[in-house]
Amino acid sequence: MIFENLKEVSKDKIAIKYLERVLTYGALTLEIKKRAAALSVLKKDLVLCHTDELENLLNFLAAMFIGKKAVIAGKQFQHIQSVFDVTTFDFVHQLNYTDSEVCQIKPSDKDIFLGVLSGGSTASPKIIWKDYQSWFSAFPYQSQVFGISDSDSVFVLDALGYSANLNSVLHALWQGATVVLGRLQDASQWMRQFEEEHVSSVFLVPSHYRLLVVSGGKMPGIKSLVSAGEKLDVSTAEQLIAKCPNAVLTEYYGASELGHVSFQQNQDIVNNPASLGKAFPGVDISIKNDKIFVESSYVSPEYRDSPTVFDLGFIDADGLLFVLGREGRMFNKRGLNIFAEEIENKALLFQAIKEAVLIESLNHLGKPKLELLVVCEAKIVLNKKELREFLLTVLPPQKLPNKITQVAELPRTLAGKIDFKAFSKRPVEEEHADA
């Protein structure tokens, strides 16, 4: 799968850069074999929870080498420990590595190699097991669609417990490119890091791209920008296109359970702000009872019999996919079904709004109300009356939220995705209506 490709890359080529550490492909291969020998004495599958994400990555590759299943937990370890029966795993902080030889296991497409922690927006956390087919069969198309080759230096954040980050790292190594692992706390220095490390491809979620675009200047050396995790807003897309004039900007929609589903690029992201594009290569999308079903080799093994995560949506006459929201984010207001993403996408069309989330909250009497939380551009105070008047031009009156609240920021997980569970901890206000 991946190790055969590593053999084809020059041993002196840089494989991974992280902080002050640099590993060539030759050094990476030796490190994997050394760690594999140490891991081979462990009888159970692994949760990798080292505080250094490069250590987790190297141990994960070593586990792959000998055919073990692993979950990269990193900072999420305590969360996993509180939810799962973790006695079925060994927690690898530090091992006594040796120079002993160990045989590589030749995997099949159906062999499980990775557990992804996924909780969706409202459900309890769960581990989704991935086999080699579900990830590696997409890699040739990722190279083609994202425009990534062995000549690239690919920047990815070091939160490898987020499966999209780990996927980007494995794809880059499979491709024979150089991986530059960055840190969220260094966001103000990313542009300088890109220049110093000759970064040509970037993978970030939208909330992290918003941190990037606030820095002045252009980045002509970037040729590929890839975004996933949540909808990329028009304002950030336009700023990225202007900031990186030589780059292809790709937004893709997917899920841990289903893999890649759809994508759109460049000006299409701006022109179709509510759409998630057309089917990713190798994917067949269908709508059954308003739910999105996905047939592809990228679907996780346990979901192949029923390949859906219960996202609701439709495909228009041009073949563009529109997601209305997951079943858990569909609200009922006086008998009318209201899809959160429909309201959020309309709100994002209003000037100065960067982010919008529709939630169900309780007033002081304990009655549920729909509340729209919005984040605006810096130093802008939202005119709620103007926003309501705008929403009335694009939505029927009965779909308007009961309350609009401007917030400085939205709660996020370590991966940079919106943390919907955190909304349940907001205090109840005495009055929960705007008008």
UniProtKB/TrEMBL annotation:
Residues 103-291 form the AMP-dependent synthetase/ligase domain. Keywords: Ligase. The keyword Ligase applies. InterPro entries: AMP-bd_C_sf, AMP-dep_synth/lig_dom, ANL_N_sf. The keyword Ribosomal protein does not apply. It holds the Pfam family AMP-binding. Gene3D superfamilies: 3.30.300.30, N-terminal domain of ligase-like (3.40.50.12780). This is AMP-binding protein. The lineage of its organism: Bacteria, Pseudomonadati, Bacteroidota, Cytophagia, Cytophagales.
